[in-house]
Amino acid sequence: MTQMNGIQAKQLDQINTQEGKALCATSAPGWFIRPRSPLGDAFSPQRPGNDVKFFTTGTDYFKDIAQAIKNAKKSIFITGWQVNYEVRLDSETRLWDCLYQATRKADAPDVYLMPWLSPKAAVDTGDLETMLAAFVLNAGLKQRKVWCFPAIQQSDMGNLGTFFSHHQKMVVIDNEIAYVGGIDLAYGRDDDNNFRLAAGTRTAQELYNPCIPPLFEIEGHKQYPYMTTAELIGAALMEGDGISKVQRKIAWAKDNKMFNAMRSSGKEFGEWLDEKGDSVLRFFGAGAADTVGGVIQIAEFVHNQLTPENIEAWKRTLRQWKASFDALLQELNAGLNTAETRLDAETTTFEHTQQGLATLRREAQAINAAISGWLLQAEQHKALTPQDAQKLQAQASSIQKRIERWVTQAEQQIPRAKVASAKFKAHLARLKSHLEIWKSQVASKLDQLSTELLAWSEQVRKSGQALSKELITRGTELVNLWVEQTGVGAFYAWLNNTPTPIISAKAIEEFDTIATPFALYLHSTLDRLAEAQKAQPYSYLATPNTRLLPKGGMMLDSKTQPRMPWHDVHVRLEGASVYDLSRNFISRWNSLQARFDGKKQYMPPLLVGVLTLFDDNLEPIPFKAHYLPEPQKVPNKGAITAQVLRSAPLKLLHEEHKGAQRAGSASLPAAQSCQANCLQAMLQAISSAQHFIYIENQFFQSVYGKSIPEELNATPGPMTSLMNVKGLPGYDRYAARLRLDEFEENPANLHKIDYHELADMIRTREAETFTNGLLQVLSNQSAMEALRAIQKPQTHLLNPLNEALAERIERAIEMGENFHVYMVLPVHPEGPLNAINLMTQVHLTMQSLSLGEHSLIKRIQRAMAIKGFMDRGKTEEEAKAQAEKKDINQRPLYEQEKWQEYLTLLNLRTWEMLGGRPVTEQIYVHSKLLIADDRVAIIGSANINDRSQLGDRDSELAVVLSGGAAVTTQIDGRCTYPVCQPVQQLRVALWRKLFALEASDPAVKVAPASHLASTLMQPAAPASWKAIQNQADDNAKAYEEVFPHIPRNEASIWPAWPQMKAARATANLPAEQVDVFMPFEQGFWKHPRHSQHPTEIKGFITALPVNWTRQEYNDSTFNLTVLAQIEPRPSAGSSATALAGHFPSTPDNEAT
């Protein structure tokens, strides 16, 4: 019995001839996981009888699924990490349009959507907008046809749960056709074999590249072809077209009137408006529903929010004080009813003491009655008018003064009488403490910012339409502070598609307490309204050329900035295993129904009376669950055997069990551990592979031993400038002015920075390089501070896939086998290379691949060196010792071994001419694919990182595919071996794509690597991997010669970092005079330097630089538990945000 199949033992029986001669024994690999294993129960059995169709481009997948949706007759199930209703599936046909057509047929299907409910502050995938648009589909239907329930996270990660996601990507049509893999129905995924950098017909959010700052601003008065989230909410809740159309007309009239008033103020002010006004007004939530009128809109919101917020604070405090008085009265009553009251020596008469205590009691009773009356009056006001609020605040202040006088009198009485002295004193001390806290902390925070905001909002309200330059400028400063430092402010900015580049840890916490309950309240309300929508869908939504306003009103400049090409894999199944994919959706859907069944979802208290979108008809009622029955078994179709895999936390499994019971479905006993099927299957495939393994994955982060700097003189690199304000050029000059010293001593003091001064410096462009760098550090520190406060992070990576690959290659080295692993990875995770979570992910990837103590490359090199020494007569122990000895460069001898004999590491890249100059961008590898020996493929949503593989974090979905008609081929160029023909065809199609053999657009600058066609059918032949490596090396060198900013061996994580430091030594140097930039900076695009273009590029493959970051240490001590980041938070792109970091998401575990 030997461990030849991952963690699954396998027995080989020897068969002999009659003469006793042993016949050759061959192991037939077992690709499918067993029902029970230490990594959790299998979600489904292996099922023969499936037909498969693979998609190697998003374009082909989108076209196929668009047709399937429109042809659906019974049901449509859609779940995804990111589902965008306006994603273009076929030319200008959106997902929403396909669903609209499907639901308007005579045989219309029932539609169920389940996007992940993203946490908004950390990452916003557009799930709220998709939910709103989905519910609007019911408008005008005689019978409801569309349900949508954003899937709240169901991980086992305790306090960190908000950072984990549902990462599955799946669509099932009629329980007959299923799609699963790595492609979300989301922006940026639509790509073909050409990997063009040019925008083509893409615009707005479809013009996708989160690695660089968007430069093109959609001016406020040009935003009418776009919708904001706020308008979409209005369209969904106001039932129909009429009211929302009026909303737009009013906004348009308001804008025209306001523009005229502003421009009539004179030429000087008009020039100022042209220069600054648009960006200011855009920040104020300008958009389709209200552009310039957004100034008034935000003033109303601020006024409505701050006034009730004061009342809410008074409510909480007065309830607290009332509880203290209840306790004090109980003690007073007990004391006064006692026959004998103990007196101090200072007591003059018994009657005097008793009289004083009785007076205290009467006044306490009166105060208690006043508090009760105030609370009753406050609760009766659903939406406070300013007059109501002022009256209530005046009454509350009067009660406070009465309590202060009462406490003083009580303290005077205490020395004279001991009435239940210990308890009375304790309650009195507690009441006094509450008073002090209220006066020093709570009341003071209805503070300078709130006071100034209220004063500003009153001025705006009184000014009518004629706003002065000073009023708008002052509002810009105050609202920026409000958005950065309060959860309600951040919520408002998000609601109007104008995100803030920096948000304090406190604001993040507050935002999370608002955004998710708000989304759930909206869902509960819309779910009820969907039963009786009579009007037609909102016409602006129904028009394909009406798009959501990009965040901040910013998008890529298509003339000079490249989109990011996207590489991914998906599969369509028909046959037996479709049943399991339907069952996965239904189990998850019913788990959510059970969680919220009968519960009321309330508007977050801080928004009550603030958002005017709601009225008394939208009061919360108990949620009425809509359970789905178990799917029917699906007949066989085709010859492929498939097994559906999941990563599923125990919490999800328990809630699925509860959902099945509530739905009346037969269910297995409750699970005892999470499911880590994806990890189990990958371990088995790796261990069972006999010739080669081909991997495409968005991440490679796995256990690597100690993380230590490669060089004795390793430096922190640019990480210091991102985490430490003292590392910024100009710190000494501006520290006192901005009060940075208190922040540096304690990052929790973020609120003590002088933001008024900072806003002034940003507006006047004083020390622009310094202020941009400061914003970056503040964003990073606030993110780190928030994560530290949540939960202790894990100390190292846990998933063993790196070990499994190393062990399989070590076995090949030991046995002298011809074996090779190909791995295709992105250059770096999507997002700007100055985001600390992304930089930490680069660190983890490089440690896993090449730099860590037990990295994949080092383990291969050690095994090769030990084998070599043993072949020359050394014992195993002697060989190990010899391999670790240092050479003349003080490097271990084993590092001289040519690891490339067993491993090929590739990135993907292309280039193009934009704006008259050459530009380059990585081709983003988003696939989650493993192929072994052309016999088995594992395709799904699971990345190679802890989030996806361990089972207790993100939910994942994948399929193992193998079998079919027996076909043999010479995959090593010598002998014939059995393969699964569809799997082999998939790999060949992918290689043809990556070698540019399928590129058809004449504008593609990359030439086909035609000489690599000979490798397509012989992936295990040494000649194949040598040819591929040589071309990848040549391409990398050609790119590096003309693009100094791209990653390369021995370079900083920012390859231009040494030159950047030197160029920015002067603290207040204007951005246009800083001549060295990285692509994540606006200056890189505004002040271009590169003019040469690369030559002799063949194919899209480049060699992964295994020694990138070798001489610096980029571990930010970021919370490893939440890495990798799923998807990056889009950057806003103004000068103040160009260097702003991204708060970690659940990176689409991506980290997506």
Automatic annotation (TrEMBL):
One of its GO terms (molecular function) is phospholipase D activity. Residues 162-189, 921-948 form the PLD phosphodiesterase domain. It comes from Aquipseudomonas campi. This is PLD phosphodiesterase domain-containing protein. GO terms for biological process: phospholipid catabolic process. Keywords: Hydrolase, Lipid metabolism, Repeat. PROSITE patterns: PLD. PANTHER family: PHOSPHOLIPASE, PHOSPHOLIPASE D. The keyword Protein biosynthesis does not apply. InterPro entries: PLipase_D/transphosphatidylase, PLipase_D_fam. The keyword Hydrolase applies. It catalyses: a 1,2-diacyl-sn-glycero-3-phosphocholine + H2O = a 1,2-diacyl-sn-glycero-3-phosphate + choline + H(+). Residues 1132-1152 are annotated as: Disordered.
